[in-house]
Amino acid sequence: MNRPYNFSAGPAAIPEEVLKTAASEMLDWHGSGMSVMEMSHRGKEFISICEKAESDFRELMAVPKEFHILFMQGGGLAENAIVPLNLSRGATVDFVVSGSWSKKSRKEAGKYAAEVHTAASGEDSQFTTLPDPASWQLSRGASYLHICSNETIDGVEFQQLPDLKALGSDAPLVIDFSSHVASRSVDWSKVGLAFGGAQKNLGPAGLTLVVVRDDLLGHALPACPSAFDYKVVADNASMFNTPPTWGIYVAGLTFEWLKNQREGDAVGIAAMERRNVAKAQSLYDFIDASGFYVNKVAANCRSRMNIPFFLKDESRNDDFLAGAKAHQLLQLKGHKSVGGMRASLYNAMPMAGVDALIAYMREFEKKHS
Ligand SMILES: *Cc1c(COP(=O)(O)O)cnc(C)c1O
């Protein structure tokens, strides 16, 4: 079976090997006589799946021991509330607004935090640039600073995480890394908490991954639901309530797949990162060299994962999408707030998929110019 290339922004493509393993284990996981979906989350089978997923992620992403890895539910949007419920402690929270997602997060935090302060915004540039950290207006005594490290809709990505200490702030950095988790390494020395929904780069929708430093646990506001209190979740090894067992299992298969990736002498996340750089570079180079397509994001903050682009003649959009589908290239339509096209090149997208997209774009351009 020849599967099409799927450029969806999320839920997104899952590596074919992972899908095949999940299919082959669907009726009987490792001789247990049960599907993973039918197991007690307190039984030894599922506990072994969950513990392995956690330790594989820790190893893959080099997560230091002072961080907890939590498997939660509610997605990135629920974390927009759960983070201030746990971390705001009645103080001001700072936001850098770099696109649609951080803007949404800021709005939600306003329901729970005493005060929300915008330290910087890229809105004046229609989110085609990232505000330089040296210009951020950090508030004194902020309980945390939130950034979205990869803006899925606008296609901007922090190539380096800001060093808040160097900017004179003791506030922990919170990153929403939903759409580039496990696509590159993370400098954990700069991070207090990271969260991400699984459905972009880790597996099926329904699982949210949270990585949180020890000292940030135990400060939840009284109104915080117990199931969303990071300390309660951590103390119960993500089993305070029934966790999203299927999502944890498929994410675990994805972590195993990631550990086995190789590019030259690089292995695991380093290999993935090398491949992601090459994939994105090849599409950006093609777009920049063409007079037919355009990407408006400044070169130093272009996302490796989500590449929005426009046809200069937008009357051909529907034609472009229909032709793409006929060429087995799916879900390229841009987000409604931005328009145009968007190619999401998550970990599961091979270089061959990017090559096929570029070949189609070249052919379409030739036909219409
Ligand atoms: C997809 C996404 C979310 C939203 O995730 P849900 O699971 O739909 O709540 C949040 N932040 C970013 C950056 C995303 O890409």
Automatic annotation (TrEMBL):
Residue stretches making up the Aminotransferase class V domain: 5-357
Modification N6-(pyridoxal phosphate)lysine occurs at: K200
Binding residues for pyridoxal 5'-phosphate: W101, T152, D176, Q199, N241, T242
Signal sequence coordinates: none
Any one Gene Ontology BP term: L-serine biosynthetic process
Source species, domain of life: Bacteria
Pathway where it operates: Amino-acid biosynthesis; L-serine biosynthesis; L-serine from 3-phospho-D-glycerate: step 2/3; Cofactor biosynthesis; pyridoxine 5'-phosphate biosynthesis; pyridoxine 5'-phosphate from D-erythrose 4-phosphate: step 3/5
Primary enzyme class: transferase
EC number per UniProt: 2.6.1.52
Presence of keyword RNA-binding: no
Catalytic activity entry: 4-(phosphooxy)-L-threonine + 2-oxoglutarate = (R)-3-hydroxy-2-oxo-4-phosphooxybutanoate + L-glutamate; O-phospho-L-serine + 2-oxoglutarate = 3-phosphooxypyruvate + L-glutamate
GO cellular component: cytoplasm
Chief location of this protein within or outside the cell: cytoplasm
Compartment(s): Cytoplasm
GO molecular-function terms, A-Z: O-phospho-L-serine:2-oxoglutarate aminotransferase activity; pyridoxal phosphate binding
Assembly behavior: Homodimer.
Protein family membership: Belongs to the class-V pyridoxal-phosphate-dependent aminotransferase family. SerC subfamily.
NCBIfam families named among the record's database cross-references: PRK05355.1, serC_1
Protein name: Phosphoserine aminotransferase
Encoding gene (name): serC
